Amino acid sequence: MSTNSKTFAHKKPSVYIKTYGCQMNKLDSELSIGFLLKRGYTFAEDENDADVILLNTCSVRDKAEHKVYSQLGSLRDQKEKNPELILGVLGCMAQNEGDKIFKRMPHVNLVCGTRMFSKLPELLEGINGTNKRILAIGEDGEVNFDRLVTQRQNRYNAFVSIMRGCDNYCSYCIVPYVRGREFSRPDADIIDEVKSLADDGCKEVTLLGQNVNSYGKGLSGNVTLATLLRKLDSIEGIERIRFVTSHPKDMTKEIIEAVGELPKVCEYLHMPAQSGSDKILKKMRRQYTSAHYRELVEMAKSLAPDIKIASDFIVGFPGETEEDFEDTVNLMKDVRYQNCFIFKYSPRTGTAATEFPDDVGEETKKRRNHILLDLQKKISTEENRKMVGKSVEVLVEGTSKSDAGRLSGRTRQNQIVVFGLPEGSNQSNVSSSLPGKLAKIDIVDSTDLTLFGVIN
Length: 456
Ligand code: 5AD
Ligand code: SF4
Known about the structure:
Bound molecules: 5'-deoxyadenosine, iron/sulfur cluster
Number of domains: 3
CATH architecture of the largest domain: Alpha-Beta Horseshoe
Number of strands: 19
Low-confidence stretches: 1-6
CATH superfamily of the largest domain: tm_1862 like domain
Strand order of the largest sheet: 2-1-3-4-5-6
Helix content: 25-40%
Number of helices: 15
CATH topology of the largest domain: pyruvate-formate lyase- activating enzyme
Shape: globular
C-alpha cells in the first residue's frame, strides 16, 4: 500500500480488526494484520482511532451473522462522523452473504471473502480516498498460508494452519461452501514455519484445520497427520504441539499412537461427536456410528492414559426425538469429556439439512441445551476435583485475567491453571521471568473451568 495516497497522507494508516468465530478466524486475522503491517499499516488498539475497521466474521450459525449485522449497524455513526473511515467485512459471512451486506449496510466499503485475505492491501488501496465499495469473493483467490509479519496474541503460543477448507459436507454445515475444497499444505512449509516460530521464542504450536485428521490428502508421498507430528516433535525450542479439529471418521490408530508416544504432542483431543444417536449421525452425514466413536475414545484412553477429550454437540437437529437426545446424554456421561461446546441447531441456507423441516421447537432446543450444559458442568467439576493434590506441568502464559496478583497457564490437557507464587519469593522477578516457561504447579483447588495451585 502506498502510504502517500490522499486519505492516509497524514500518517501511517491504522487498522483495527475484530474477530468472530473459530481459531481459524483468529489465525486469518493475524495473517491479515501481517499482510497489512508489511505494507506500512499500523495496528490500532482501539476502533475509535482506526482508519480502517475490519470485521472477520463467522457464518456457522445464524446468531453469528446477526451479531455482525448489529455491530455494523452500530458503526454507522462512526462512519458518518468520519466518512474517510474504511469499513470492511471479511471471511465466512462475507463469502456467504456477498453483496447482500452492501444492500443492508450501505456504509460498508469492502466485502472480502475467505480466499482473498492476501489481497487486502490492494483492495484497501482501491477504496482509499474514493469511498467506493468493493466486493471480492471470487473462489479463484489463492490460499496464502504465509506468515509475513509475526503478529501473535501471545509470544509463546501460535496457530499454524496445516490445511484449509473441508470436503465433508456434514449436512448442517456451511463451512465447505464458504471455505471451499480441502487443501493440505506441504509438510516442508509447515516444518519451516514451526522452526521460525521456535526461533522467535514460541513454545507451543496449535495445528489448525477443519479436519486435521485427513491432513496429507492430495500431497505426494505418505504424508499424514501422524508423520507430520513425528517430524514436528523433533524441532528444538518447541515444547508443546496441539492439533484441532479432529473428525472421528478420519481418526487413526497412528494419530493416537503419536499422541501417546511423542513427548511434545499434548494429550488432548478435540473430537466433536455432534450426537450420540446413530439415526441423527446418519442424517448429519457424519460417516461414523456412536459405537465407532466410543471405540476411538477407548483406544485414546488406553494408548494415551492421561488424555482428555473435548467435543461439540448440536441439539435439536431435525427429527431428534427424546430417545435420540438420551443417546447423546449417555455418550456425554460415558466419555466424561473435559469440556464441550453445545449448540442449538441453526438451519443454514444451501446446506443439505434444510431439506428436513426444522421440527424441534425452540423451547425443546433450549431445554436440551441446558441439560447438556449442566451435565458437562457437573462432569468438569468432578474431573477437576480429582486433580486437587496432584502436581501438573503448566506452560506459563502471563498474569491471570481474573487476578492480576497471580499467573496463569495451561496443562498439557488444556486445563487453565491459575497460581500464586510461594510466600517470600521475589514476586515481581518471578512474575516477569516465568511466562514462556514450563512450571510444576501443585493443585490445591478447582472449579469446573479452572484449576488453582501454587508453584512447586
Ligand atoms: N447449527 C448449529 N451448530 C452448528 N455447528 C456447525 N453448523 C451448525 C449449525 N448449522 C457446530 C458444530 C461444529 C461447530 C463448530 O459448530 O458442532 O462442530
Ligand atoms: Fe463442517 Fe463437517 Fe467440515 Fe466440520 S467436518 S467443517 S462440521 S462439514
